[in-house]
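[audit] Reproducing an earlier prediction to check determinism. Same input, same settings, fresh worker. If the tokens differ from the archived copy the diff job will pick it up downstream; this log only records the rerun itself.
[audit] input (143 residues):
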Amino acid sequence: MNALKPALFAIAATFAATAAFAAQAADLPAEQVQGPVHFLTGGIGKQEADAMKQAMKHYPLSLEFVARARSRDEYLASIPVTIKNGRGQVVLHTVAQGPFLLVKDLHPGKYEISAAQNGRTEKRTAQVPAKGAERLVFEWRAG
């Protein structure tokens, strides 16, 4: 019986990890595709926001959209976003449906990203690595 304990523990741990991953995936919005690029957009509500934060590690580019306010920062949604590669070609043009936009299937390299909120456009440059991830926060003043 003692010889079975490690095996049973491993099976239980695998089951728990699989259940946690399935629960997280259930809280995520559906992945979308535009050309070769796959992306998630959302993060409305605590459960979905937490799931998006956990999913960031699987996406080489993560964008977050925030309004800075005196009392407390606010997440933003309905943000038009355009991502261009180093040659100036649009690789993704979408509207972020929540405060997070997670993007994968981008070639490693430099990208120009623009996002707009209430007529104010912010631009950032991202360096998408071959391994790892790049995270950018777009901030606008509330008000």
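[audit] rerun output stored. Observation attached for the diff report: Confidence is low (pLDDT under 50) at residues 12-24.
[audit] end
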